[in-house]
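Suppose you are handed a protein chain with no further information: no name, no annotation, nothing but its sequence. What can you learn? This example shows the usual starting point.
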Amino acid sequence: MANIFSPSALFSSSSTGSTTTNSATSTVSPSPPKPQLTVPPPKQPPTNLATTLTATAAAVIVLATTPPSLATDPQTTYQTYYGTAASAANYGGYGGNSSKKDSAEYVYDVPGGWKERLVSKVEKGTNGTDSEFYNPKKKQEREYLTFLAGFRQLAPKDAVLNNLALSDVDLQDLIASADSVTSEEKKDDKGQVYYVYEIDGVGAHSLISVTCAKNKLYAHFVNAPTPEWNRDQEMLRHIHESFKTIA
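A reasonable first move is to predict its three-dimensional structure. Written in structure tokens, the prediction is:
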């Protein structure tokens, strides 16, 4: 029993354990610091350069493209129409007399692509319509000519316009609802007098040119709904100004 609880034994045992502990402490090196992981930001989807350029070009084309307009189209062409203003009794059927250049009493330009509306003897005899052309894409965009025999000279401008409206219901309605009606007197290089009217209505626009020659009153009309007027104004004014009588 004395040997078991001997102080020296305890000391020896304690020393041994202490030595072992110290030895372990001196040989274990500290663990290296753990590397910190850097999380990269999410990658953006790759951009296809060709796709981007194509989309940009398409956007530019869409923004730069305007609706087709005869007024601004450099390819717009005109044909000269020759009208004879023949009476209903002497009217040679339907379709006008555009080929009878030698017997023509008046001329005006017709835009390329416009169609001629056939005028009957009955219509010629009732309201004096001699010829008419229209835009097939919008039939209300049109030009036509009427004539009345027995006029040696023009009456006052207001009286002439009112008399024209008596035989033209559409003209009556346009004048009644017009925002403005202007009129002026012009002379050509030969001194012939023309009355020029411009009627700006709520839904339509009209240009009218009236003159007297050969004991007849000629009235040339150019009509268009407001959208077509805004789009084709230059062209419509051209055909309006192209009208003249042939001496």
